């Protein structure tokens, strides 16, 4: 009995000793895990650095391509923004895609992107807006003298200070007796070379300032004298009083707003432009050539320049510009300088 109790006491007082080397193995495992984590972190940092470097190289290549673009293409201007505002929006999209400007700006070799538009469209109008980029900006003046085509919806019975629906109504006259035959009968008077008085709200200038700017400031502005303009063709597409739709092909310096206003007066009433769409400018058409905003990318612009070069007269076609081959330029991501927008009547250029 005593032996049994002794055995019980003895067994209850036993302590289990750790196996030899267990602590060392645990310490080694912890050290290995820490080393692995540190290595993984270093690998991740290196990968991020490589990704960042690759991204910078890609942006630099896009910047180089953007700066090498030269020629003329067309974009689709929606209603709302002015032509200058739309040009700035296009410029900003292209700059953002190329990562320009960026913190890696260097002052050693500044480059300039030239971009401009030819043929101002009213903010309330939509349609083809011709854009020149690089050396293509030098071709914009020639685009102004080319023909343009418009679809205009006029409204009889109301005259406004801007000659379109955005202005204040200045006069109202009856139109209920005007027929489709009446309108068609007077269109011949507006065909060929005619004299036209430009609108007060226009891009034309007085003392270096746009007439529209002076008018908005409330300054007294005298109308510009009538000047010769050309209408190649004009036809009535639809008449649903008080609205009438015209298809007009005209030369440079022509104002559809003045045309619609003059038609209203010729009909012993008055009229203003309700909607205006430029469907063609020179060889560029709205359906075939005008880039919508979702295609304002460097690649799409490059493809459009290539496509549109075949539309231009041989004397205006630009030879392809060779991109800079300097590794330093590509790797250092040197960017452009931008100055103020300069506007000369219908030609606007941003440098």
Automatic annotation (TrEMBL):
EC code(s) of this entry: 5.4.99.25
GO CC terms: cytosol; nucleus
Family from the record: Belongs to the pseudouridine synthase TruB family.
Database matches in SUPFAM superfamilies: Pseudouridine synthase
Span of domain Pseudouridine synthase II N-terminal: 107-256
Any one GO MF annotation of this record: tRNA pseudouridine(55) synthase activity
Root EC class: isomerase
UniProt keywords, alphabetically: Acetylation, Cytoplasm, Isomerase, mRNA processing, Nucleus, tRNA processing
Protein name according to UniProt: Pseudouridylate synthase TRUB1
InterPro entries: PsdUridine_synth_cat_dom_sf, PsdUridine_synth_N, tRNA_psdUridine_synth_TruB
Species annotation: Sciurus vulgaris
Biological process, per Gene Ontology: mRNA processing; mRNA pseudouridine synthesis; positive regulation of pre-miRNA processing; tRNA modification
Catalytic activity: a uridine in tRNA = a pseudouridine in tRNA; a uridine in mRNA = a pseudouridine in mRNA; uridine(55) in tRNA = pseudouridine(55) in tRNA
Origin: domain of life: Eukaryota
Record function comment: Pseudouridine synthase that catalyzes pseudouridylation of mRNAs and tRNAs. Mediates pseudouridylation of mRNAs with the consensus sequence 5'-GUUCNANNC-3', harboring a stem-loop structure. Constitutes the major pseudouridine synthase acting on mRNAs. Also catalyzes pseudouridylation of some tRNAs, including synthesis of pseudouridine(55) from uracil-55, in the psi GC loop of a subset of tRNAs. Promotes the processing of pri-let-7 microRNAs (pri-miRNAs) independently of its RNA pseudouridylate synthase activity.
Subcellular location: Cytoplasm, Cytosol; Nucleus
């Amino acid at each position: 009995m005593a032996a049994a109790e002794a055995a019980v006491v003895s067994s209850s007082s036993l302590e289990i000793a750790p196996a030899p080397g267990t602590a060392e193995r645990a310490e080694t495992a912890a050290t290995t895990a820490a080393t692995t984590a540190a290595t993984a972190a270093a690998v991740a940092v290196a990968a991020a650095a490589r990704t960042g470097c690759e991204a910078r190289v890609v942006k630099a290549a896009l910047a180089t391509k953007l700066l090498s673009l030269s020629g003329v293409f067309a974009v689709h201007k929606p209603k709302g923004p002015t032509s200058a505002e739309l040009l700035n929006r296009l410029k900003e999209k292209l700059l953002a895609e190329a990562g320009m400007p960026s913190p890696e700006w260097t002052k050693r070799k500044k480059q300039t992107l030239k971009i401009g538009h030819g043929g101002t469209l009213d903010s309330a109008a939509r349609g083809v807006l011709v854009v020149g980029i690089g050396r293509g900006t030098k071709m914009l003046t020639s685009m102004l003298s080319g023909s343009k085509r418009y679809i205009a919806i006029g409204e009889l019975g109301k005259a406004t200070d801007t000659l379109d629906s955005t202005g204040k109504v200045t006069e109202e006259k009856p139109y209920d007796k005007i027929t489709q035959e009446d309108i068609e009968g007077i269109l011949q008077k507006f065909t060929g070379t005619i004299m036209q008085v430009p609108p007060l709200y226009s891009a034309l200038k007085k003392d270096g300032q746009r007439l529209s700017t002076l008018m908005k400031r409330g300054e007294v502005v005298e109308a510009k004298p009538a000047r010769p303009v050309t209408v190649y063709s004009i036809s009535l597409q639809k008449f649903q009083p008080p609205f009438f739709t015209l298809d007009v092909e005209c030369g440079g310096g022509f104002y559809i707003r003045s045309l619609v206003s003059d038609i209203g007066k010729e009909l012993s009433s008055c009229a203003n432009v309700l909607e205006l769409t430029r469907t063609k400018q020179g060889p560029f058409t709205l359906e075939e050539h005008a880039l919508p905003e979702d295609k304002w990318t460097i690649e799409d612009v490059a493809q459009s320049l290539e496509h549109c070069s075949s539309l231009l007269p041989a004397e205006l076609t630009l030879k392809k510009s060779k991109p800079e081959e300097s590794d330093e330029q590509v790797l250092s991501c040197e960017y452009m300088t931008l100055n103020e927008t300069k506007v000369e009547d219908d030609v606007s250029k941003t440098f």
